[in-house]
Design brief:
Layout lengths: L2 E5 L4 H10 L4 E4 L7 H10 L4 E4 L5 H6 L1 H19 L7 E7 L21 H16 L3 E6 L1 E3 L8 H10 L4 E3 L3 E2 L1 E3 H14 L3 E5 L5 E2 H8 L5 E3 L5 E2 L4 H5 L11 H5 L1
Parallel strand pairs: 1-2, 1-3, 3-4, 4-5, 5-10, 6-9, 7-12, 8-13
Antiparallel strand pairs: 8-11
Helix pairs in contact: 1-7, 4-5
Length: 261
């Protein structure tokens, strides 16, 4: 049985992954502060493991409100982890949960080698982490998640935030942007696929389909008031590389039933 360590186990995706696969794999929750190198050294001295999944990170909104803490948690801590893992005799495979925020907006589907131009601190630090991993570590897998959604998602994400505004009868201001949404159940299934197949490299994780943000809001409620701002952009994944390595499962399109539950 493979042994998997996850940090950020209380994160939205981390919780779903643990609940789904805790019986199939031995999953150890790393509960220490990821900024504390001594705690990490002590942990690796006591535990052997095959995979380390790096879910832990401050959200985009938290990065905007506390830049210093974000740089420490979202970048400096990762450098410490990678540097320490390089000292181990048996190095674990490292799965880094990255983001579509590393890309520049594009009217065509984004490939893994598409232009990188993050427009916020969160995306910039994700890209910095990717570059550091690729330069310093051999056994890595970088998964660039597009817009993840699902049940019990925190309110700082798009869909829960829109549901809150609709409930409060707020007027929602939106542009004509198109995004790629993927359900959390598909995300964790893909992560498990990479573990099972022992894959490395960098991959886009999305549905490969774009949808207007305004369409999502209308799926939640037909009575909502939307003020359209004359601006538009697209961020859609090309998942050809994911398919090329053998992922044949259907990735579900966003559905109304998953938005109102």
């Amino acid at each position: 049985m493979k042994i998997i360590v996850i940090n950020g186990f209380n994160s939205f995706i981390g919780k779903h992954f643990y609940r789904k696969y805790k019986k199939k794999y031995k999953i150890i929750k790393y509960k220490e502060d990821i900024n504390n190198l001594q705690k990490l050294k002590s942990f690796t001295n006591k535990n052997n493991f095959d995979y380390f999944i790096h879910f832990a990170a401050l959200s985009r909104l938290k990065c905007n409100s506390n830049k210093a803490k974000c740089k420490k948690t979202n970048y400096s801590s990762l450098k410490k982890i990678i540097n320490h893992f390089n000292t181990l005799l048996i190095k674990p495979s490292f799965i880094f949960i990255s983001s579509s925020h590393v890309y520049a907006k594009s009217r065509i589907r984004l490939k893994e080698d598409s232009k990188k131009k993050p427009n916020n601190l969160y995306g910039k630090l994700k890209l910095d982490c990717e570059n550091y991993i690729k330069k310093k570590y051999e056994k890595y897998c970088i998964l660039r998640l597009f817009n993840v959604y699902g049940k019990n998602q925190p309110e700082n994400f798009f869909i829960p935030d829109m549901k809150r505004k609709i409930k409060n009868k707020e007027i929602i201001q939106l542009n004509k942007s198109v995004r790629d949404f993927i359900h959390v159940n598909d995300v964790i299934k893909i992560i498990e696929f990479f573990i099972k197949k022992k894959l490395c490299g960098e991959f886009n994780i999305g549905s490969g389909q774009g949808i207007f943000l305004t369409s999502i809001i209308k799926m939640i409620s037909s009575k909502v008031k939307i003020k359209i701002i004359n601006k538009s952009d697209k961020l859609i994944a090309n998942i050809g590389k994911l398919r090329k390595v053998g992922y044949r499962f259907k990735i579900n399109k966003i559905k109304k039933i998953n938005l109102i539950s």
